[in-house]
Specification:
single chain, about 160 residues, alpha+beta, Aminopeptidase, five-stranded mixed beta sheet, 4 helices, acyltransferase activity, transferring groups other than amino-acyl groups, acyltransferase
């Protein structure tokens, strides 16, 4: 692959399924999620369901080769009475890292949000993900907010 390949972003298409699945498995593995084809199937189903809130994008070269993925969804922001775009997943093929695919996706999402009147593009990442954080720090502003997860439990 030439380092001068032109990379662009578009919505996922049915023909992207095999490449998307490979990348998404890599994403899950990177974050030490167990192998789970049911989860991969479910997320692909969400992305190909026009009525589901999750939307998938891919970064492709001129031949249609998929090099990166992003899965996003809109979210309400009651404190500002606006709607934002949440970037749930961003993953680049490890063999293509350092070629600007992640930056291409982030800039696409920034423009997409502006074109649709969204107030922010927001995401989280692992504190120790230094490579990704260097990119994120060059494109966005880290916030002072701390993220919490609570496990649902009846009768708690």
């Amino acid at each position: 692959m030439s380092s001068e390949a032109q990379w662009t972003v578009r919505g996922v298409e049915p023909a992207d399924e095999a490449a998307w699945r490979e990348l998404y498995r890599g994403y899950r593995s990177f974050y030490e999620r167990p192998e789970d084809e049911d989860a991969v199937d479910r997320v692909w189903g969400w992305l190909t369901d026009a009525d589901h809130e999750c939307v998938g994008y891919v970064v492709v070269d001129g031949t249609g080769r998929v090099g990166a993925l992003a899965n996003v969804r809109r979210f309400a922001r009651p404190s500002t009475a606006t709607t934002g775009l949440f970037l749930d997943d961003l993953f680049t093929d490890p063999d293509l890292r350092g070629r600007g695919l992640g930056r291409t996706m982030l800039r696409f999402l920034r423009n997409h949000a502006a074109e649709h009147g969204l107030s922010v593009v927001r995401w989280t990442t692992a504190e120790g993900n230094a490579t990704a954080r260097a990119l994120y720090d060059s494109e966005a502003t880290a916030t002072a907010w701390v993220t919490y997860d609570m496990t649902p439990q009846l009768g708690a």
